[in-house]
């Protein structure tokens, strides 16, 4: 009987000792459940942030593609501008050479015209001289 009383007393003591532990465990479980709910809420929030970040990443990728297209367009424009600048430079050089050539040719033609006029004038002067000489001879004879 003593054993039974001892066992009963031990059970009572153990029960009294275990009861607060059970309450604490229940409280911990309640807190853990609350934390699980909060973690689930955080998980949902992180999922939403991930979706937003993915959307943002797609937008950035789209902007990168657009910027690459703009860069390519600007490269093409730069290339065409280089060609235009070279052509303008070539035109200016050609115009300067044409201007110099025109001046040179005008000078050459002016020299030729002057020479031709001088030759014509000399020939005319010779004829006039011959006529004057003939007139003088006729005047002396007459």
From TrEMBL:
Keywords: Coiled coil. Residues 53-80 form a coiled coil. Gene3D superfamilies: 1.20.5.340. This is t-SNARE coiled-coil homology domain-containing protein. It comes from Siminovitchia fortis.
């Amino acid at each position: 009987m003593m054993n039974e009383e001892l066992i009963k007393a031990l059970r009572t003591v153990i029960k009294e000792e275990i009861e607060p532990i059970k309450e604490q465990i229940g409280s911990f479980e309640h807190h853990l459940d609350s934390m699980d709910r909060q973690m689930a809420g955080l998980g949902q929030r992180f999922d939403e942030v991930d979706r937003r970040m993915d959307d943002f990443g797609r937008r950035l990728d789209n902007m990168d593609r657009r910027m690459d297209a703009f860069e390519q367009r600007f490269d093409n424009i730069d290339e065409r501008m280089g060609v235009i600048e070279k052509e303008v430079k070539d035109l200016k050089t050609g115009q300067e050479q044409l201007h110099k050539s025109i001046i040179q040719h005008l000078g050459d033609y002016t020299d030729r015209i002057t020479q031709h006029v001088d030759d014509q004038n000399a020939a005319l002067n010779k004829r006039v001289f011959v006529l004057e000489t003939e007139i003088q001879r006729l005047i002396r004879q007459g």
